Amino acid sequence: MKYLLTLMFFAMSFTASALTLLPANKGITLAMTEQNDQLLVLLVVKNHGDNIDAINLSEKFALTGDVVAVYQKLGYEKIQSIALNNRQKTQSYPIANLLSPAGNHPAHIAAGLNYHKHADEVEAKQKPFLFAKSTTPTRSEAIKVYKHELLDYEVELCARPLTKITDTTDILATEFALFLCGDFTDRALLMRGINLDNIQSGQGFEQAKSKTGYFPTGPFMIISKDWRTLVNDIELTTKLNGQIKQRAMASEMVWPIDKIAKNTLLQSNQVNASTSQHSPLLTNKELNSDMSILTGTPEGIMFSPPDTRFKIATAMKYVFSGSFTSTELKKYVIEQYIAEQLKHKRLLQPSDQLTLSATYLGSIELTISEPE
Known about the structure:
Blueprint: H1 2-19, E1 28-35, E2 38-47, E3 51-56, H2 57-61, H3 67-74, H4 76-85, E4 91-94, E5 108-112, H5 116-121, E6 129-133, E7 143-144, E8 151-152, E9 155-161, E10 176-182, E11 185-186, H6 187-193, H7 205-209, E12 221-223, H8 227-233, E13 235-240, E14 243-249, H9 257-267, E15 293-294, H10 308-320, H11 329-343, E16 353-358, E17 362-369
Helix pairs in contact: 6-11, 10-11
C-alpha cells in the first residue's frame, strides 16, 4: 500500500511539473498556431494539459508570422509587461493545434555526445561534435518504424538564436529562445554509416537522424533575459510506456549553447563528413534565427553497442563460416549485431508510447506506429 501511494504521488508530481509554466517575472512563454493560413503568435498564461489559455499577440498588434519574427518586432519588455499585468483577454487553444517553434530552415545544427554519461553508455570518447539535422520539425505526430529499422529516442533541449549570428557576432551577448525537442535515430543506418575510427567526424549521423518524423518538438518557446541560468533549472525526461528512461538536468551538457554556436561557425568553413556529398554545416557562414540547435541527449537511450563477448563469438563465426572470403570483419560484425537487435526487438516497436518532457517547456506525446 505504501509503495502504491508513493507511485501515485510521483505520478501526480510528474503531471504537475509538466504543466508548470515559466513564471512571468523570469521570462515569457510563447506558442504558435495557424488560422486562415496565417501564423498567429500566442502569449501563454496557463497550461491545462490538453489546452492552454493565451493572449493572442498577433490579434492585439496585427502581427502575423513566425514566433521569433513577431518577438523581434515587439521586443521582450513589451511582451513581458503584458504577461506580468495579465489583464488582457485570454482565449483557449488546444495543445494539439500548436505548431513547432523550431523554425523553417531546411537544416538545423545538432550536437552529439554532449553529455558525459551518454558518451559512456555508447562507449565513445567524451568529446562532443556537430552534425546537420536535415528534416522538417513536427509536433506530437506518430513516428513510423519499418521492419529493417532500429528506432531509438533521445530527449533534448533545443535553442533558437533570436538574432543572426556571424563570425563578427559577440556570441556571449547573443540571446537564445529555448524549447523541448526529440532527436530520433535509425541505429541500423547509423551503425552502417558511422566512422568508428573517428566518431567526431559526424559521418553517418545526418542520414540516420534526418528521416521523416525524427525531429518532434514541444509546444512552447520560452525567452528569458537570464536564459543561461534558466538552462540550469531545466530537467529533461523521457518516459517509455509509463517508465522513466531518461532523466537529467540540462546543466550537465558539456558544451553550453553559446559554445555550440561558436563551434558551428568555426566549422562552417570545414568539410563536414556527415554526408556523402561532404556538405558544410552552414551554407552561408551564418546561423540565423530560422535555425535551431539540438544540444544533445543525456544517458538512457535504448541502444547499446555490442559487448566483447558478442564480438568474439561473431569473429569466430566469421572465420569458421568462411565469411572472411567475401566481406570485412567490421562490416560482418555490424550486420550480425543489427540482425540480432531486430530479431529480439530490442528497440522501439509499434504501439510503444513515449512522453518527452522538460521543465517549463511542456511535453511531446508520441506513438510509434507501423507503416501503412
